[in-house]
Amino acid sequence: MGGVSVEGGGGGKKSVNSEVNMVPMIDLLMCTISFLLITAVWSQMARINADAQVPGPPRTDQQIDKVEPEPQLHVTLGPTQEGGKKRSFSLVWKAGGSQIKEEKIEVQAVEEKGTVKYPELSAKIESQWNETGKHREASDKKFDQAVLHSDNTTPYSELIGVIDAIYAPQRQYKVGEKTEKASAFNVTFAMQ
Amino acid sequence: MTIHEPGKRLMHAIPLKFVQKKVSGHGGRSVAAELSLTSMIDFLVTIVVFLLMTFSASGETSLPNGITLPSAEHTIDLLDAPMVAITADQILVNGQPMGNTRSVVEANKVQKIEELFNSLKGQRDVYKQLNPNKDFPGVVILTMDAKVPAVVVKSVFQTAAFAGFPNVSFMVNKTGGKKPAGGGGGGE
After folding, report:
1. Nearest chain B Cα distance for residue A91, angstroms
2. Does residue B90 fall inside a structural domain?
3. CB-CB: which of B70, B109, B186 is closest to A160?
4. Range of the domain at B41
């Protein structure tokens, strides 16, 4: 058994050596391990956000200044090739009705456990955001807007792959006193 | 029942000398093995610390049958919000069917799903009645099967927005990478 030994005890007095009982201690550790193993969550769930951009009712007490339209990234999913392994995308930056930039790319889809990922698309969006994105300051509470266009038959897993690629560019974002990394875009769907 | 004096006990009344000799190690190798408690306790404490660090009270939600979630890297933590589950056949709110996925797929047109709209609007009204001084967060979490077509995704998204839930989150399995704070998490 384990014990705590302190020198200088004895001499007719009660010994200062005391025994720590190991059995209940090991029992406690075993119970804690069992509890934590049973309650452990091995698959972590999270969420990915999209914004429906519903405007609030107009306020009659405030005078509305004319606001310069901000550039928005329109990502359009094109047709697939090579049996779904390659997909074409159109990346268009628009401000109001005017088009700022357009690029058509073909990217390789990477499939992992039923999930589709587009690493080339995220790299391309990141480089475009570095050139055209407006909201970069940590104190800026707004995010650049991305609009996702897809046909009606595209599976949800591919939409999530594209949204995940759009969220790849990161910027600093101030939350209270702390500055954290945040995705540079807000995503919404184009309704056709 | 009477109480009897205990009978003979092993090692006291019955010496079993050959066993004592074997155990004490005289004349041969002892059969009693020493267990090093220090390393064992170190090991157990390390496991406990590791499990405590990976312990999470949130992050596990029960999924309805027939839903395989896609995975994503740039995600944010789940929050407490109404949850809509969409399988290949039906749309469920709190386990109650609130629409048919197949009819939306067959129509092949983005549409407002009336039952879902009424259910979400009801939840919004209840929140506003219970919390008259609080802003309504307008967050809804969609738990969708990976194979559901985009027309259903857009229809549910639009219906949620019409019902007063403009911040729509999609539940996914979290894969590697660091979590972003905002942007994709505008609904907080």
Report:
1. 19
2. yes
3. B70
4. 9-48
Tell me, yes or no, whether A79 lies in a domain: yes
- Min Cα distance B33 → chain A (Å) is 14
The reply to whether A57 falls in a domain is: no
- Please provide the DSSP assignment of B102-118 as one string: HHHHHHTS----HHHHH
List the single residue in A112, A152, A186 with the smallest CB-CB distance to B151.
A152
Q: What pLDDT, on the 0 to 100 scale, is given for residue A56? A: 53
**Spatial CA neighbour of A164 closest among A190, A130, A127, A126:** A126
Instruction: For residue B62, tell me if it sits in a domain.
Output: no
The mean pLDDT values, 10 residues at a time, for chain B of 188 residues are 77 74 64 79 90 71 80 85 90 88 90 92 91 88 91 92 91 72 46
Find the CB nearest B78 among A45, A163, A186.
A45
Number of domains in chain B: 2
Q: How many CB atoms lie within 10 A of CB A148?
A: 21
Give the nearest chain A residue to B109 (CA atoms): A152
Could you give the CA distance from residue A183 to residue A164 in angstroms, rounded to a whole number? 10
**Domain hosting residue A107, numbered range:** 71-189
What span, in angstroms and rounded, lies between the C-alpha atoms of A155 and B146? 7
B160 contact residues in A (CB cutoff 8 A) = 52
Residue of A nearest to B164 (CA): A54
